[in-house]
Write a structure and sequence with these properties.
The chain has strands at 5-10, 14-19, 29-31, 42-47, 53-57, 62-68, 74-81, 92-97, 103-107, 112-116, 119-123, 134-139, 145-149, 152-158, 164-170. The strands form four sheets. The protein has a four-stranded antiparallel β-sheet with strand order 4-5-6-7, with no helix packed on it. A four-stranded antiparallel β-sheet has the order 8-9-10-11, with no helix packed on it. The N and C termini lie far apart (39 Å). The chain has no helices and 15 strands.
């Protein structure tokens, strides 16, 4: 994070936040569902350009942790995103931030979700993705989004409004 801490996802018990430089005043923090996370089974952690920490869970959706910049990693707010507010799946497998500070989420069973301010845009089988199980995401230097799915690797190009232009599957046979 911006304070120089390492955020570690734990399989069944939330997150551990550990300072890189440890001394006698260092505090290792544990954050769990009891502290406000959406769930304790953590699949993904990512930091956006504003310093927020995004946490994807196995079946409880997504948590956005806003940090207090004046106090090292003190949480000022946790916001939840789930199927109740428009995500296509509560099983978040990967999280990526683009150059516009939009949050791109790969899910199990729901394809890709793009959080663009107060709007959630979905890319899934209904608009060309070959699988709704997305396990990894990355951008190339040309700005194309690449998704690792159970069917292979998919190259996704879309316009400035996130309307899919083309999805190309690269499978083992290719």
């Amino acid at each position: 994070d911006l304070a120089g801490n390492i955020w570690i996802a734990k399989a069944d018990s939330g997150i551990t936040v550990m300072p890189i430089k440890q001394d006698s005043t260092s505090i290792i923090r544990n954050i769990s569902q009891a502290d406000g996370l959406a769930g304790n089974k953590i699949n993904a952690i990512s930091k956006d350009q504003s310093g927020n920490i995004w946490v994807g869970t196995e079946n409880s959706g997504l948590s956005k942790i806003s940090l207090n910049p004046k106090i090292d990693s003190l949480i000022s707010e946790i916001t939840f995103y789930s199927t109740n507010v428009g995500l296509s799946s509560n099983s978040v497998k990967c999280i990526l931030t683009d150059e516009g500070n939009r949050i791109i989420i790969g899910t199990a069973g729901g394809g890709i979700n793009i959080l663009n301010q107060n709007e959630i845009i979905q890319i899934n089988k209904s608009n060309g993705l070959t699988s709704n199980n997305v396990y990894s995401l990355i951008f190339d230097n040309a700005g194309n989004l690449w998704a690792g799915t159970e069917k292979g690797v998919e190259k996704i190009t879309y316009d400035e409004n996130f309307k899919v232009k083309e999805i190309r599957l690269f499978a083992v046979k290719d």
